[in-house]
């Protein structure tokens, strides 16, 4: 019986972070796939506050919230560190991770959910956020430097999900001419060992997000 | 070489208070710089170009932004005194989880409880009280969330005390009556000099809130 369990869904980009971190550190674990429309009693027991995935259970004790889980993994399994030893660099990585979740992700999601002029405006906002990431990548292969680090794992969803969004809506956010470094990072990150082998199936993601977009657009239909 | 520590802050900000408390707990000398948020200094814009917000901790010329991240930085650098996080990774994860919970819930819900009306107000107030109750359960029988001493959850949460009396008045509830355990925790925190000296004047906070409500057309 594995002492590490990960509760996740097949498509959650937040849960993917945990998959990457565990595999990069070569930690054996069991996966429990959740159906969010019918959450298991175990999930509700392990994450009673937010009732969400991902949740990591290690020796029977649960940890929730993806960044909290990442830090727990980092502190428990010290091989292949995701964070620098330097406190200022650690703070910077955490800041970029937070920026990704608080600004980049919502702005791209807003653009994805809309159409026409609203989408155009959304894309402009998303690009303003992405400019900071582009700047941060100057002289670096990854946000973590030579190797994949905490910020790469946090932002990693961009490398695949943005492509999925493009396919579904034909909106272009990370264009090569405008974001050469970010475009290159997407490719390098996506093709890295471990990352490459663990993307959810592209066609399934396209189908899922197509349905989500349609549902969101319907909500906006004027009366 | 002596450490040079600067804190860019704004006196009523509960996020700034967090850092003031942490720096005081660890006995770190620093220069406090008050920012005018309507006229942000070049130093602030240069130190936090992404968010352009306070608080910003500048240590030997290097900036650290976002209050919870700065708390962790302070704990990692000045690790010889008054630890804000426990040693054990699991206990650390629980502390970080609850500090994150405070960030996600308390500020927004408290603000909503005092700046909305009708159903929106009721919902915000109810959720706010549920959050306080969850925190009470987490506190348990410990004097502080950090155990015998202030931890990152205490430091993240107690700054909102200046705003609690505002939330209570406009939200129409009493923390003292409905959450006596939480109230006792507040009192214990206020006995700490690092906390009492870092909190802004409550009357002045009240005035700010009356102003906000006026601007929202609620008075």
Automatic annotation (TrEMBL), chain A:
Name of the molecule in the record: glutathione transferase
InterPro entries per the UniProt record, alphabetical: Glutathione-S-Trfase_C-like (IPR010987), Glutathione-S-Trfase_C_sf (IPR036282), Glutathione_S-Trfase (IPR040079), Glutathione_S-Trfase_N (IPR004045), GST_C (IPR004046), GST_C_Tau (IPR045074), Omega/Tau-like (IPR045073), Thioredoxin-like_sf (IPR036249)
Gene Ontology molecular function: any one: glutathione transferase activity
Family label: Belongs to the GST superfamily.
Enzyme Commission number(s) of this protein: 2.5.1.18
Gene Ontology BP terms: glutathione metabolic process
Keywords, in A-Z order: Transferase
A Pfam family: GST_C
Residue span(s) of domain GST N-terminal: 2-81
One Gene Ontology cellular component: cytoplasm
Catalytic activity: RX + glutathione = an S-substituted glutathione + a halide anion + H(+)
Transmembrane segments: none
Residues of the GST C-terminal domain: 86-209
Gene3D superfamilies: 1.20.1050.10, Glutaredoxin
